């Protein structure tokens, strides 16, 4: 009789997770917390090493792993939505907020039960217009279970300079503060847990070259932000408590191999992983690895590996401590030939 009860609970948990409603909580059906952890691991194992996603011309640029509901979440550059990706590659829209024109960066803040997204407009979205193209920078926070909006903040209004803006990537601190990069202006924004925003950094050294993408990927290492600049492949260090001490990070072994530096991912061992591409420049299609022995005052390029997929943009945590890279085929979207497939490939 107990065996039948456990089997029933296992099936229920698996079905709930596949449908995006989440696995049973710890202690469900009278089981200990370790049972729930085992169920999460089992569900995570359902994702293949190469996950070919499909949805109506989603073209995701950003992705994240939702450890609460055991699923990948991807943003849509074309539709301005966020979708959950099932193990078979099918997708279901989770966030559909009219304020979102083009979803770029995606960050799952599991501890606070929310998903954070960077909003911009490259001109390639269905919600793009002459008034919004290259003029949108915003951050939205949404309930991780329901997709309900928690807040939306207009960062271009915070910049208040009337110039071009595009919110690109974001990272969250332990207190819930979010830090956001702007690809079209030399700004890094700081957003409080409730949505109130301010400018953390404004420095002309961070300005993009004319017609190019500038600031892009961002990670946090203790009290320091590490930011990549796409157009020239430079890395920048921002002490959160003293952002006026912004400095460029010299990278040994670079040799121009960080040109087109897009998404960044910080690993538990302190290694910094990154993706380079030539979507908006002359970068190679590769995955890079960097290390620092002095708190990112200097760094060393330790590995460069070609990527098998075209137009890879980001690396995301995956199930069981894995790492996946995302190819949303933005090259085809920008060429005016949208497709319905994207690839999440396990690389670690």
Q: In a few lines, what is going on in this structure?
A:
By secondary structure, this protein is mainly beta.
Describe the structure.
By secondary structure, this protein is mainly beta. It is built from four helices and 26 strands. It has helices spanning 2-18, 33-44, 155-159, 330-334, and strands at residues 50-54, 63-66, 71-75, 81-85, 91-96, 102-109, 114-120, 135-136, 138-143, 149-154, 165-172, 178-182, 187-191, 197-202, 215-221, 224-229, 234-239, 247-249, 251-252, 261-266, 272-276, 286-291, 299-306, 312-317, 323-327, 341-346. It has a five-stranded mixed β-sheet. A five-stranded mixed β-sheet has the order 19-23-22-21-20, with no helix packed on it. Strand 4 (81-85) and strand 5 form a beta hairpin. The longest helix is centred in the first third of the chain and has 17 residues, at 2-18. It is globular and about 45 Å long. The N and C termini lie far apart (41 Å). Residues 1-42 have low confidence and may be disordered.
Give the termini separation: 41 Å
Radius of gyration from the alpha-carbon trace, in angstroms = 20 Å
Total strands: the figure is 26
Q: Which outline best applies? A: globular
Number of helices: 4
Give helix and strand order, one letter per element, not per position. HHEEEEEEEEEEHEEEEEEEEEEEEEEEHE
Largest sheet: 5 strands, mixed
Strand content: 35-45%
The helix-and-strand class reads mainly beta
The strands making up the biggest β-sheet line up spatially as 8-11-12-13-14
Q: Taking all residues together, what is the mean pLDDT? A: 89
Fraction of residues in helices?
10-25%
Spans of at least 5 consecutive residues with low confidence: 1-42
């Amino acid at each position: 009789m107990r065996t039948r009860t456990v089997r029933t609970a296992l099936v229920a948990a698996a079905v709930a997770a596949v449908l995006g409603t989440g696995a049973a909580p710890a202690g469900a059906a009278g089981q200990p917390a370790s049972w729930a952890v085992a169920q999460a691991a089992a569900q995570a194992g359902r994702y293949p090493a190469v996950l070919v996603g499909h949805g109506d011309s989603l073209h995701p640029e950003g992705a994240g792993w939702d450890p609460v509901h055991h699923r990948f979440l991807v943003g849509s550059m074309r539709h301005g939505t966020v979708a959950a990706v099932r193990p078979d590659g099918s997708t279901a829209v989770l966030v559909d907020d009219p304020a979102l024109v083009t979803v770029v960066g995606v960050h799952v803040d599991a501890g606070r039960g929310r998903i954070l997204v960077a909003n911009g407009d490259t001109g390639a979205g269905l919600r793009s217009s002459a008034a919004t193209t290259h003029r949108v920078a915003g951050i939205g926070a949404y309930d991780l279970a329901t997709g309900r909006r928690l807040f939306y903040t207009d960062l271009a209004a915070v910049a208040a300079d009337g110039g071009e803006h595009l919110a690109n990537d974001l990272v969250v601190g332990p207190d819930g503060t979010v830090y956001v990069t702007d690809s079209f202006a030399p700004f890094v924004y700081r957003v409080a847990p409730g949505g109130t925003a301010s400018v953390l950094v404004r420095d002309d050294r961070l300005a993009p070259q004319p017609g190019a993408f500038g600031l892009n990927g961002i990670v946090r290492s203790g009290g320091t932000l590490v930011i990549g600049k796409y157009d020239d492949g430079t890395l920048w260090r921002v002490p959160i408590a003293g952002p006026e001490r912004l400095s460029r990070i010299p990278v040994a072994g670079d040799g121009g191999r960080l040109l087109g530096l897009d998404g960044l991912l910080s690993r538990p061992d302190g290694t910094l992983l990154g993706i380079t591409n030539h979507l908006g420049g002359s970068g190679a299609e590769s995955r890079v690895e960097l290390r620092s022995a002095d708190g990112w005052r200097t760094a060393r390029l330790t590995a460069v590996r070609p990527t098998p997929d075209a137009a890879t943009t980001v690396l995301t945590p995956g199930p069981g401590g894995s790492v996946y890279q995302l190819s949303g085929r933005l090259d085809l979207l920008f060429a005016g030939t949208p497709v319905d497939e994207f690839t999440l490939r396990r690389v670690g």
